[in-house]
Amino acid sequence: MNASILCSSIRKVSKLLSNRSAAASEVCKMCLGRIQETKALNAFITISTELARGRAARADERILEGLSLGVLEGIPLAIKDNWNTQDIHTTCASKMLSPYVAPYDSTIVSKLYALGAVVVGKTNLDEFAMGSATVDSHFGPCRNPWRSGLKYKLRKRSDLSLIPDDICTSQRKDGDFYVAGGSSGGSAVAVATGSCFGAISSDTGGSTRNPAALCGVVGLKPTYGLVSRHGLIPLCNSMDVPGIIARTVDDAALLLDCVSGWDRLDSTTVSSQPPISPLSADFDVTNLNVGIPKEYECSGLSPAIKAAWREVADLLASSGARVREVSLPHTKYSIVCYSVLCCCDVASNFARYDGIAYGHRAHSSGPEHPYAVTRKEGFGEVVRERILAGNYFLLKRNYEKYFLRAAKVRRLICEDFRSAFEGGIDVLLTPVTLREPTPYREWTLVDNREHNAVDDFCTQPVNMAGLPAVSVPCHLTEEGLPVSLQLIGRAFHEKEMMSVAKWIERHMDFPLLDFG
Predict the structure, then answer these.
(1) Which of 203, 311, 332, 356 registers the highest number of CB atoms within 10 A of its CB?
(2) Residue 299 falls within a domain, yes or no?
(3) How far apart are CA 30 and CA 494, in angstroms?
(4) Which domain holds residue 502?
């Protein structure tokens, strides 16, 4: 079987499996092999080899017996390690949960299994999803596959033909690597390397779109409530959204259809929406109204990203779309607003980690209470800081000054988006991040909170408003690093937003990595 199959779309591989031109066991073996070949990137925390092989073998049996097949029958996928999975460790990349194995599957995992998916493993992340680079993991930092030192080729996204280009196969001269983005960096790296055909992530302030942008893949954040959060270990309940990372917009749309819909175990879910896949191959942009938020052209925006933003906006305009500037005036308050609200939720949610029922347990013989020692040992510095900050904001004397004010600002941010869409805008086109992938050594020189303030500037407001958004790769810089743009849509209008994303993807034809 040709290794280039790992660059193929889910529908193409599914067709090869169903007509017996390929075997699920062989595809699974190739993905597990790719995980080992790219192990230096540290994308996975747990590799579920035997479980994956067993499910792949059952998929082959179903195909041979001519049974009705799920749309993901035999397709290898990965799950971010903050989703509960029965029989597979769920660690949240933290010492606190390193021994934990959930007694049940998350709703999203159950749906994937019901459609025949093969889960090859759990992916790396910032501890408890608190970060934007996947460097604050108990299991070590994740490395961006671009210019990582590992050998790879580039393939055209349109026809998978090889591109004669070796600029991106080199490593930094100082041996350093680039960060993968976060907090879902492991999921993005797994998809970019061909270790799986798609990955489930989470997105609280950009944690799906950020790493997808930095790793050159597609990152989808659905509308809040469209996909069940049952089984997702919470960070900030009112902003947490299941995310999807895939190599193509079509694959992301297909996976969204597979996991969306009402769930009796999640009271925030809505009744099922009409499927959005397959997306039209000839979407007409002539009736499209595209908004360019002027506040997103801010200090620190990379020239390469700014140039790509203008190029795609001009391309849409020259193709008949109506592109105009809009204002989202409260964008500048989003980071500080998020910092307060998120820390308050963290303080509440993380009270459950006491070392009594599950997870890490310290045995203290000193004057400190075992509960305090457990939390000191089990949590990293970033997590402890957010817990302390959240408890401070929620003190009786501080509640109105911080939490209530932040909640009011969040409402203003939501109103900004509503005004733009009620003013006739169909989608907003923005950067995803303000800069290209950062070298790891450079990253460690700055505090985590300062990084988040820069890296999530364009993504966090979307979570405040509960809107859908998608990151689409567009260009490579002169150094051979990915540049992506973000589309923000109206609530529950994923089909329109993803159709525009596919249009951009088709016109930009960003290359795929092939480590075969």
Answers:
(1) 203
(2) no
(3) 32
(4) 3-286+427-514
Q: Could you tell me which of 149, 197, 171, 74 has the C-alpha nearest to residue 512?
A: 197
| 187 falls within a domain | yes
If one counts the domains in the chain, the total is 1
Is 421 part of any domain? Answer: no
Angstrom distance (rounded) from CA 227 to CA 336: 27
Helix/strand/coil for 242: strand
Q: Is residue 394 part of a domain?
A: no
Return the sign of the alpha-carbon dihedral for residues 15, 16, 21, 25.
Answer: negative
**Minimal CA–CA distance to 195: which of 292, 82, 52, 301?**
52
CATH number for the domain spanning 185: value is 3.90.1300.10
**What one-letter code names the amino acid at 373?**
V
Structure tokens at 167: 């600029």
* CA dihedral for 118, 123, 128, 129, sign (positive or negative): negative
Active site residues: 80, 183, 207
Contact (Cβ atoms closer than 8 angstroms) between residue 224 and residue 466 = yes
* Pair type for strands 218-221 and 469-476: antiparallel
Burial 424-447 (b: 16+ CB within 10 A, else e): ebbbbbbbbbbbbbbbbeebeeee
What does the angle CA 182 – CA 188 – CA 190 come to, to the nearest 5 degrees? 130
